[in-house]
Amino acid sequence: MMKFYSQEAIKLEKKYGANNYAPLPVVLERGNGVYVWDVEGRRYYDFLSAYSAVNQGHVHPRILNVMIKQASNLTLTSRAFYSDKLGLAEKKLCDLFGYERAILMNTGAEGNETAIKLARKWGYEKKGIPINEAVIVGVEKNFHGRTTTIISVSTDPVATTNFGPFMPGFEIVPYNDLEALEEVLQNPNVAGLWMEPIQGEAGVYLPEEGYLRKAQELCHRYNVLFMVDEVQTGVGRTGKLLASDYEEIKPDMIILGKAISGGFYPVSAVLTSSEVMDVFQPGQHGSTYGGNPLGCAVMMEALDVLIDEKLTENAYVLGKIFRERMSQLCDKTDLLIGVRGKGLLNALLVNDSEDSSTATLICYELMKNGLLAKPTHGNIIRFAPPLVITEKQIEKCMDIIEDAVLNFELAEA
Ligand SMILES: *Cc1c(COP(=O)(O)O)cnc(C)c1O
């Protein structure tokens, strides 16, 4: 067979695809655990993990086996019939995360759309909000996906410019600002408060201590549903099963996606109480592939792998080691100003403006040295390796990062 080279693959995407991403110029063809290989056979540490979808590592053998077995048996029934997997999958989610009910969708955006629809319907039918007046409150710098409704709450001009008109019924408050939040929640038409517990895409912004707990208290006081998007932060990524666990909050709804299916197959879910879930009646919401047996089987195994291999605990321990070493690195160079994060969701802050290309150039240097990471903005690099990474491997990766940063600084000087 003819060898397929990077340049040809890149040319094909450029010619026939959409230009809606700016990939690093590396063409991957194989993955295993923390590693991926390009078509020329070069090996890299994956420090993006497909935006935290591959927490269990690439091509995890247990998930692979279950996927093959289920794919040979039954893949899709639609929800017109029951399947032998859906109830088990829903029970697994409810037991593991401590909720009464679950609804399965496919992408994170769809999970969030589902949560919005639940909150609005709950607002009209349980809270007594006048029809079509429900408000959902989001926070600045949020990221919840790419649908026209979801971007209506975005404050990022890149995500919104020329995509209007936008969906009404949303209000935006500054992040970490409890006063502004309390003011807006006093509007009796507010059905839900919707936020990420740590803002991943924005650049790994952490809430001030106590913010989430106070926000939850305010939601209870004003009879507003607290909807927490754990699509990126959930499933062990931050060193707890949910990032919400850091403040011991129990949101009225959580939205999960990405790593709940270990990178094999798109599965998302909304978990909530019976009171909220029961606002959905037959025909009112759905998805052809949502909750299909293949997705359910893959998800159940991916969650078992997370528990059996203690990946959450590993993320907690290695995250501390990572941030400690990176903050020492920040002391050694003027190029970096800090590191922040929880567990293995971390960001290195580059001493340059948001519209600079410095973070991208550092990522090129990292790539040359065998480590793949992407900037979230011109001056923030996110580091999120698969949670199966070992201490020895992460030590090696920190050497790569340190060398790349110091070399880059020398070359610039
Ligand atoms: C990635 C992400 C989404 C969107 O998930 P998709 O599967 O890409 O639709 C939603 N919310 C958060 C917090 C995310 O990180």
TrEMBL record:
It comes from the Bacteria. Its cofactor is pyridoxal 5'-phosphate. Pathway: Amino-acid biosynthesis; L-proline biosynthesis; L-glutamate 5-semialdehyde from L-ornithine: step 1/1. Keywords: Aminotransferase, Pyridoxal phosphate, Transferase. The keyword Transferase applies. GO terms for cellular component: cytoplasm. Its EC number is 2.6.1.13. InterPro entries: Aminotrans_3, Aminotrans_3_PPA_site, Class-III_PLP-dep_AT, Orn_aminotrans, PyrdxlP-dep_Trfase, PyrdxlP-dep_Trfase_major, PyrdxlP-dep_Trfase_small. GO terms for biological process: L-arginine catabolic process to L-glutamate; L-arginine catabolic process to proline via ornithine; L-proline biosynthetic process. One of its GO terms (molecular function) is pyridoxal phosphate binding. The keyword Transferase applies. Belongs to the class-III pyridoxal-phosphate-dependent aminotransferase family. PANTHER family: AMINOTRANSFERASE CLASS III, ORNITHINE AMINOTRANSFERASE, MITOCHONDRIAL. This is ornithine aminotransferase.
